[in-house]
Every structure is written in C-alpha cells, then in structure tokens.
Design brief:
The complex is a heterodimer of chains A (about 260) and B (about 60). With about 260 residues, chain A is of the alpha/beta class. In chain A, about 40% of the residues lie in helices and about 15% in strands. Chain A has helices at about 25-35, 50-60, 75-90, 110-120, 135-145, 165-175, 190-195, 205-210, 215-235; strands at about 1-5, 5-10, 15, 35-45, 65-70, 95, 125-130, 150, 180-185, 200-205.
Chain lengths: ~260, ~60
Amino acid sequence: MSSFYGVELKSRLLLGTSRYPSPAILERAVKASGAEVVTVSLRRESGAGKAGQAFWSLIQSMGVRVLPNTAGCHSVKEAVTTAHMARELFDTPWIKLEVIGEADTLQPDVFGLVEAARILSEDGFEVFPYTTEDLVVAERLVEAGCRVLMPWGAPIGSARGLNNVYGLRSMRAHFPGIPLVVDAGLGVPSHAAAAMELGYDAVLLNTAVAEAGDPVEMARAFALGVEAGRAAYLAQPMEPRDMAVPSTPVIGKAALGD
Amino acid sequence: MRIFLNDDMHEVSPGTLAAALETLGFGGRKIATAVNGRFVAAAARPRTELADGDRIEVVAPMQGG
C-alpha cells in the first residue's frame, strides 16, 4: 500500500477521466483499471448547460476519490485560483498542480510550479505537483510543502513512455521517503510496468486508455502492467551484465564432441 | 448594469453575485465562482456586491487528466 497525504491506496494506478468515447465507457474503464483515484477538472459552464452536473453525478456513482487538476493554467495566479475553486467544488484538499510553461510540449513551468505549490501548501492544500525529473526543482517542491512528487514520463498525451529513465531512477534514489508518481506520457502497459520496476509508487495516465481502440480492455491491461512492475520491483531484479552467463550448469554435461 | 459571465455580456439589476447567478440560471447548481480573477466562495456570494463591468467566471466539474 502507498500513502498519499495519509490516504492508503491499494491500486497504484490513477486514471484520468478525459477523452473517452462515452461516459459509459469511462465508467467501465475506471472499473476495469481498479483505480481508486480519478483526476477531474473544471471548465466554464453556461446557465443552460448541464454537462458538468451530469459528469459529477457519474463520478459520484463510481465511489472513487477525486484528484482535481489545474490543467491549462499558465500562471501562478490562474493555478491558485483554480485550486481554490476545485477545493470548494470537490470538497478535497488534494490538487494536481499543473502550471504549464511551454505550449508544444506542455512542459511544466517549474518556477511558477514551486511558487504556486508554496502558496497552496501554506493554505492547507495537499499538492500533487506535475513536474519534471529535475532533482533541484523536486527539492524546492518538497521544501514548499509537497509530500508527493509527480514527474512526467514524457509530454502529456504523447505515448512515448519514459523519456529519461536515468532521471527518473535518480529521483527515486534521491527521495526514498516521498511517494513518487509517473504522470503523463505513457502509451502502453509496458511503460507503466517500467515505471513501477524503478520503484515508483504509482502511475497516472489518461489518454493511453481513453484513446485506445478498446479503452476498457486497455484499462485492464494497464492494471496488469502496474501490478507486474510493482511485483518485479519488490522481487529485486538482477543486475544487467555485459557477458553471457549460461543458465544451465556446464558441470556434468555429456562429452559428445570430437 | 453590464456584467461579463464567462466572457458573455449580460444586463442584470445591481446586486450581489448570488442574485446574478440565480437570475442567469445557476441557482442550486454545483459551480465555483471567481470575480475579476479572484475566487469567491459559495458562502461569500450573497455578500459580494457586483459592479458594472465585473468579469465573473463560473466553472463546473469536467473531465480531466
């Protein structure tokens, strides 16, 4: 079990709720994934619109915990205001903090991220910062009050997997006591398994499931990938080496050559 | 007076944010609000007086990753 701000989760897969073909498929995918936490967002709604209310009813019916995000925010002020709105709307101190700094890669603005994380942590929020694998930034986030770190695997929605395995491994080694979640960029379950084999506590993904040909089956596949990766990490994988070592003993082999 | 709600202009009687939201169809809805970029908690809406030209943001739960 991993603890996120004192909340113990059995599932190490956190799932986004966006881009599914239908609400019914979203519901089935969440169930198939075993996720106990889903990410949600906030968007403008008109007086006549009912989409937000319908979506909220669906989420409530699933019995999952929500992690609201500040997706699309490009400034500290925007992110902080959005976080306050989310806290009231979803009645949770949890916030997945995104401060986007670059349009093509959706790379976090880590300077704004640290500033927003400090403001929100001091205000009682429990911040899940979407960050890079930069160790110095991560240190600043912890100093700002973050007790979970969420480095990207690759740019959001890119399905590229773990772009910087060395950086992610370094982060795991550097923060043994902080829950770490690979957030974003995963495409297939083997990417999730690889993150878990590095010792990460969980993965957070959305598009890889939502835009699969069969989102429900892909959700199940990711759950298996996460479970396999975690089991492998706990089983302590052998170290890679350069030369072959025969797995079958040589002693006692029949002498059949010339 | 004129206010802007999610960028759309509306004519409303002078009054509070809560009254304007009621008039514009948001009564009883699960929403969060900000006025001129500042968060306004639900409990504060009845005592938040609007001024001509105020920009109101109204958001609701939505799918997110």
